[in-house]
Amino acid sequence: MGSDNFNLASILRDHAASRPDHPALEMSGLVLSYHQVWQRVAELAAALGDQGVNAGDRVALALKEHPDHLLLHFAIAGLGAVLLPVDHRWSTAEKLGVCSAMNARLLVIEPDGETLEGLPAWRLQAGAELPGATLDPVPAGDRPWLISLSSGTTGRPKGALVTHREMYERFINQWVTLGFNATDRFLGVTPLYFGAGRSFGMCFLSAGASVILDPPPHQPQDLVASINNSRASVVFLVPTLMRRLLPMAADQQPLLPGLRRLVSSGEPLYPEEAAEIQQKLNRNLIAYYASSEGGGISILQPEEFDTYSDTVGRPGFRLRVEIVDADDQPLGIGETGRLRYAGPGVARRFLDEDGQETESGGWFYPGDLAAIDERGFVQLRGREKDVIIRGGVNVYPAEIEKLLSSRDDVRESAVVGRSSKERGEEIIAYVEADADALTERELLDFCRQRLAPYKVPSQIHVLASLPRAGSGKIDKKALGAGTA
Questions:
Q1: DSSP 8-class letter at 405
Q2: Which three-class secondary structure state does DSSP give residue 148?
Q3: For an engineered disulfide with 280, which of 171, 231, 249, 264 has Cβ 3.0 to 4.6 Å away?
């Protein structure tokens, strides 16, 4: 098949022909076969066409979690249009800023969703009957299919233009390196707006597997019941969710015994907690280091945690990972520098803050500092923007966070830099712990015994909970303002 003749939607069409009765998509008792899924994709595509959507048009989805939301990804692809993910929880200004900058042609919203001035909107009633239709996916292999946003939702957003072929190559990467296949039952507990929810949901449908949607929020006990009762073989959980499940585990029995793959992504796991997760939740833990714009980067397999748990694994299938200096010159083994990667699934075209298209040259820089050892394992050193320059010396927050989080009485930690007239920047640490049982002085003494003097934080604040972004990650922007 020629690259330009390919269309992501054609994968579902082929599954509908080869395995029509196989369960494809489930939610709250509703089970759709691949025949039914393809029929619904065709109906949704026709409805988009009735709204004036043509090939190349950008369609913003501001929807909640339901089967039609996921299937619209394929309907948009089938038309040769371009998907613009929008979080339905954003404010009016946030939605307007993204849709305007990215030149959206149509906004798809819930029946009670908010419209935006100057932008046509289609109110979609999830699951409502639509006129029967057929769909012949347009040739679109090297054409953009997705705008993957890479900056804030207000002001001047920007993003990667991911083609049909690049997205398919990302699926291949996941099938090969994460071991997903057509026999799996994937439980999706992440919002479809987020890169992981979108990518994994589409990946498993493209593999011919079964996808079960169980949208958040989840109480820990309900999440465990959902995973076990759904007979899921694969689930993706951010580390924050895994940490909330650990106290529920019994000493002898793993909490999630039926999983063939327990995928963690979004932030690195510390070695001690990775060992605890494998012991108490499921042995088949996989750490997946990825970015929404560029796709998967590296994978740490279950059997590698014992030896390489301080890394994020080795590069995925057909990926090149390099560590370079400020002038893009490759660095040696063990040297810390900017991480970049290239491969068939990595986006090459980007939209800048003005919506103008630029070329990347094939390399994508996720903004991380890292080093690679002699066996090819990647060790993250911190975010490029997070580097703290204290008295002219570079300090990497990840090292201090790893130390603080190694304590049993600290749930999580975050380290940020604050401007300082005396030293340029000072190191400020925050830990999530019981303030009645842990003091700043105790933590500072702990750091002084284990860190070089220039790495010891100036202040350590004990909080009942750390601020978080919508994805569940710690919101360092909320911690980093001010002057030390």
A1: H
A2: strand
A3: 249
Q: Where do the DSSP E strands lie in 69-143?
A: 82-85, 106-109, 121-123
What is the C-alpha to C-alpha distance for residues 105 and 127, in angstroms, rounded to an integer?
A: 23
Structure tokens, 9:
């939607």
Tokens representing residue 44 in the block: 């949704």
Q: Which of 78, 6, 2 is nearest to 38 (CA)?
A: 78
* Number of alpha carbons in the 13 Å side-chain half-sphere of residue 417: 24
- Pairing state between β 357-359 and 349-351: antiparallel
pTM, 2 dp:
0.83
| 434 Cβ neighbours under 8 A, 6+ residues apart | 409, 462, 464
Residue 153's contacts (CB-CB under 8 Å, 6 or more residues apart) are 87, 90, 94, 95, 97, 98
In whole angstroms, what is the distance from residue 315 CA to residue 33 CA? 35
Asked if 160 contacts 150 with a C-beta cutoff of 8 angstroms, the reply is: yes
Could you tell me the residue ranges of all domains in the chain?
1-384, 387-478
43, amino acid identity: E
Give the sign of the dihedral formed by CA 323, CA 328, CA 330, CA 331: negative
pLDDT in tens, the chain (484 residues): 445 789 999 999 999 999 999 999 999 999 999 999 999 999 999 999 999 999 999 999 999 999 999 999 999 999 999 999 998 888 888 789 889 989 999 999 999 999 999 999 999 999 999 999 999 999 998 999 999 986 433 334 578 999 999 999 999 999 999 999 999 999 999 999 988 999 999 999 999 999 999 998 899 999 999 999 999 999 999 887 898 899 999 877 899 999 999 999 977 788 888 999 999 999 999 999 998 888 999 999 999 999 999 999 999 999 999 999 989 999 999 999 999 999 999 999 988 777 788 888 889 998 889 999 999 999 998 777 777 878 667 787 888 998 899 999 999 999 998 887 677 789 999 999 988 889 999 999 999 998 878 889 999 999 999 998 766 778 888 886 545 5
Q: According to CATH, what is the number of the domain 387-478?
A: 3.30.300.30
Residues with Cβ within 8 Å of 229's Cβ and at least 6 positions away in sequence, in order, are none
Contact (CB, 8 A) for 413 and 404: yes
CATH T-level fold of 1-384: Rossmann fold (3.40.50)
Structure tokens at 62: 């501001």
Report whether 422 contacts 476 (CB < 8 A).
Answer: no
Structure tokens at 182: 């057509």
Strands 30-33 and 349-351 come out as: unpaired
